[in-house]
Amino acid sequence: MSKTSESPSRVRRYLAAGALWSVACLATDLGAQQRTTVLDRAAQERDRAAAAARRLAGAQSVIDGVVTDTLLRPLVSADISVVGTSARVVTGDNGRFRMLQVPPGQYLIVVRRIGFAPTSGIIDVPDKDTLRLSYTLLRSNNLLDTVRVRGSRVTMRMLDFEKRRQQGQGQFITQEEIERRGSIQASDFLRYMRGVEVSQVTTQAFAGTQVYSRREAGGFTDSQQQQSCAMQVILDGIILPRNFNLDLLPPPKQISGIEVYSGAATVPPQFGGVDRRCGVVAFWTRDGY
Fold it and tell me: Tell me, what's the pLDDT at 147?
């Protein structure tokens, strides 16, 4: 039997055909993987959107509240805002307000009225239930001009912000810096500041993010919990509750400036009346609360 050998040209054709087939198979596999990845991402987005829709559709919680002065007289036209959301209502002639279809969870509420000092509070909205609230406002000596529009008030607040920044006391983050960094949480910006420490805290009574003064207490650790010195947080001039959870702040896209004073000695007189021992962190929003 004679042994037949393939010609070199035919061998080259076979090899070329095999290489093309391998490349085609590889391209097909990569294309399939890419399509699968795109489909998986799209499915995940649909699942998240559907979950959010179900959460909203099933939310039957109600916030029912009243706002009075120190003599328990109802205050009409008091403004109630849920920070970080578009929820905003005003009180009626009887001082009462109501919010419907509220998703369960923890929120920061701000209550304001011209002629009175604003107040704030953290609320926990139960699932499919009614939360009843009561707020008392103290009359303020610093009356706002009734003809001043919202835009002018925001401009004046940021002018004061710029004046303090030029004085060189404290640390400042401008709106341009906030937009450039593109962080997700407002608390992220504090991690770059000198003399402060941002810590994630989880206890039986509290779970969230807090800011502490290193200058006063050396920061927060589990073994130093009693020695930690939580800084006072202010939002648009409104004093927030002590040991405030920074996760309840508005997103960075709503913030126009942040100023940090890590010790009592550097806190400006404009923030008088607050507990200065551990310093102050002030957030200013673009629209104001």
Answer: 41
